[in-house]
Write a sequence for this structure.
């Protein structure tokens, strides 16, 4: 998978050379005696008693660095293959399996490489920061990549009947105990779930079960129900780790973009 | 000033409205009503539990340019715009106090009909230009922060209202680094750390990395938001100048993504 790593990390993710990283203490972060963040402290809660997901989050570093050392952006396994943790892999429909096979030698069709939005699943596996802002009735996810956002309504509204198809879809969530269960539909056709080319179609319904295990860890269980692309629904878990004492920095894929003429494929 | 081609390029070239599916029309919560049941847009400014004005809501800028089919219909765009979209100083008496190079550059840019405009190449609008872009903005006010979600490129801006100072050497960005504090019922937002080469409007009035932008946000009543913008950029302008941008509440609607780069066909047709 080295080619993928090089393409995505060198080709699309440029690290700024000037200025400085944002370093500002996270408010309300519990600390150990030595001042370090206590990431295993209990889950924080909002005034109405719900778990508070607010914070800056990053991917779990579950993929060893290649022999040459880590890339500037440290991708997780699910960035390359969203079904990495599933025995036997994803239950692709034949046409979907063909896309994945083709992508092994031709990565030029990846929407990510064209600076298009990642969509809601890939947002979680992108090795850039995300910030959750939880308010009564609305959860917002701000992402560094393309400086874009996703809204999850938690005010009890139903999903629209015929939503405008979009990269992020339309999301409505409700609490089941300490878990926020989010239903999303209204996807734009042609989304990719990972760099392998695992597709998502407009008929997809996605259920997320989001749980903040403790102060430093967020678990997002994702069930993809897309029978056009997969023979049955499947479920994976994406772990997000808190990034303390920092904030988002803009990352614009399209700014000074030089790669597309070289993505000729086969 | 030859604004019409700029307008045409910006709106026809980069803003297309989705043709299928439906607009989002979920009822906005907490809207004051008149006795006859209509939204009471002149009702008092809503407030947060902390007592400050609550700026939360979906807002659109004042879109005043009339659509006159007898005039060639150049202002009859799918998204109505305001004069400050074309020229942020449209209501500033005497115009902008340009430094000589800035005056020359804005002239060249106006003649270039927007071909070098970052936004026609799908780059961000930045601060303060996003305030005049006719896509909806949603302000979400939470303790310690204001988030502004913008339909344009489905992008956002953060304004920290938690008392933090500016970073010493911020990474230059399109939105800069914004810190706000309440002064009575006005939120005063100061922004530094802007990337060099921003455009302030469609005619190409420049903003440099030396700029400090101050926005005074005041929700006059339920339905009106005033943003007074002061630009202090001694590299481009001989003195600070101030303009007021009016915004109106949008009810029973939601943001719909507008991704400029999706199926983009214009860049190759722009002038050399």
């Amino acid at each position: 998978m080295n080619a993928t790593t090089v393409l995505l990390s060198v080709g699309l993710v440029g690290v700024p050379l000037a200025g400085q990283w944002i370093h500002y203490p996270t408010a309300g972060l519990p600390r150990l005696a030595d001042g370090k963040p206590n990431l295993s402290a209990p889950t924080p809660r909002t005034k109405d008693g719900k778990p508070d997901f607010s914070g800056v989050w990053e991917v779990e570093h579950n993929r060893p660095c290649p022999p040459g050392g880590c890339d500037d952006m440290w991708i997780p396994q699910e960035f390359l293959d969203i079904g990495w943790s599933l025995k036997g892999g994803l239950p692709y429909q034949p046409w979907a399996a063909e896309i994945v096979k083709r992508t092994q030698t031709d990565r030029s069709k990846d929407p990510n490489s064209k600076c298009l939005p990642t969509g809601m699943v890939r947002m979680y596996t992108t090795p850039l920061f995300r910030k959750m802002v939880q308010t009564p009735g609305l959860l917002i996810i701000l992402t560094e990549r393309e400086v874009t956002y996703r809204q999850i309504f938690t005010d009890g509204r139903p999903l629209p009947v015929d939503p405008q198809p979009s990269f992020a879809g339309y999301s409505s969530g409700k609490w089941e105990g300490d878990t926020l269960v989010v239903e999303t539909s209204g996807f734009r056709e042609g989304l990719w779930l990972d760099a392998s080319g695992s597709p998502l179609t407009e008929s997809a319904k996605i259920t997320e079960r989001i749980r903040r295990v403790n102060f430093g860890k967020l678990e997002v269980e994702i069930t993809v129900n897309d029978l056009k692309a997969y023979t049955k629904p499947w479920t994976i878990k994406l772990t997000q780790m808190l990034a303390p004492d920092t904030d988002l920095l803009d990352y614009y894929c399209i700014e000074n973009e030089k790669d597309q003429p070289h993505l000729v494929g086969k | 000033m030859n604004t019409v081609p700029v307008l045409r390029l910006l709106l026809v070239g980069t803003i297309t409205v989705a043709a299928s599916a439906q607009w989002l029309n979920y009822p906005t919560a907490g809207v004051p009503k008149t006795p006859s049941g209509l939204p009471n847009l002149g009702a008092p400014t809503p407030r947060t539990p902390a007592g400050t004005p609550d700026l939360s809501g979906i807002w659109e800028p004042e879109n005043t340019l009339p659509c006159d089919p007898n005039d060639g219909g150049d202002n009859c765009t799918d998204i109505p715009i305001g004069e400050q979209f074309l020229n942020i100083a449209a209501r500033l008496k005497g115009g902008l106090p340009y430094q000589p190079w800035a005056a020359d550059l804005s002239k060249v840019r106006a003649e270039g009909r927007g071909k070098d405009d970052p936004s026609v190449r799908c780059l961000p609008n930045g601060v303060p230009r996003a305030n005049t872009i006719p896509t909806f903005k949603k302000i979400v006010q939470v303790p310690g922060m204001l988030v502004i979600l913008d339909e344009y490129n489905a992008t956002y801006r953060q304004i920290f209202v938690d008392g933090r100072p500016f970073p010493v050497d911020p990474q230059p960005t399109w939105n800069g680094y914004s810190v706000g504090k309440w002064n009575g019922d006005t939120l005063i937002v100061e922004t530094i750390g802007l990337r060099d080469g921003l455009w302030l409007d469609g005619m190409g009035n420049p903003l440099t990395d030396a700029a400090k932008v101050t926005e005074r946000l005041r929700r006059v009543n339920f339905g009106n938001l005033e943003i007074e913008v002061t630009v202090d950029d001694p590299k481009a302008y001989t003195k600070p100048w101030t303009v007021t941008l009016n915004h109106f509440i949008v009810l029973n609607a939601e943001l719909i993504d507008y991704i400029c780069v999706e199926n983009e066909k214009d860049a190759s047709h722009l002038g050399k």
